[in-house]
Amino acid sequence: MLLAESATDPVVWVVQHREALRATVTEHGSVLVRGLGLRDAAGAAAAFRVLSPHLMADKESFAPRQTYAVGVYSSSKWPQNQPMCMHHELSYALELPGLMLFACLDAPDHGGVTGLADSAAVLDALPRRLVKRFERHGWLLTRTYNDEIGASVAEAFGTDDRAAVERYCRANAIAFEWQPDGGLRTRQRRSAVVRHPVTGRRCWFNQIAFLNEWTIAPEIREYLVDVYGPEGLPFNTFFGNGDPIDADVVQLLNTVYDNHTVREPWQAGDLMLVDNIRTAHSREPFEGSREVLVAMTDPVQLSDCSPTIEVTIK
Question: What cofactor does its activity depend on (predicted)?
């Protein structure tokens, strides 16, 4: 944690300390700046652009976000009484953010921590047989898009034009199938273990547990299965060969994450930088209002991270 209590202008402070902040993230995987005094979306966006001028557009999101400025978004809209388990942003994409930027404008009354976990340490703590299976087969993400639950086609792809969506899917190794009701189902197979493109460290890099059906609260899962059927869940994960992932595997993954999680409650004005490949992040349940802005930047190609499975572009 760095203290910026002497800062009179948050953006000027970030300009002055940009290189030190970037170096700290490279060394430690994350850094929290406290006392910076970020007060509004305009100030947060300005600070983000100082740290990295080329912010990424949000694509393939799993939940809606509010857009504050180009490349600056709200946290994913997720029930505040439900956790968002550990994950790496866009770990299912072929181009992913190498750096995540967070700014807290309004801290919750209780909870709402953005937990962090070192992905190399998580990998080392997992059973070798399980890791080898995921290295051999990768992981499979299935998604069902509609206008009722999760992100819609337009929210995830930035358009509802079928031809444009299909072009994106083909270019990004995503199998797709349009449903009779106009909904969309997709499948994409990715590597669960990658090497950091800078340090070369092997990292457990995926959203296997977070987007799996067994992480969903039981009563919500039962409702979704009852209404949409087991194939119609908004998202689910499998071993890369299509085998189901049992509840005990998901529980094991979440337990290992929890054992390696560090937590620091948000304070209004905080700024946090997170290496998206080295460090997983989560969002814990909370009470009261919570406004944390997010930006994704420093794009990385999955192909530059020594993936363990081949991805075929159709």
Answer: Fe(2+)
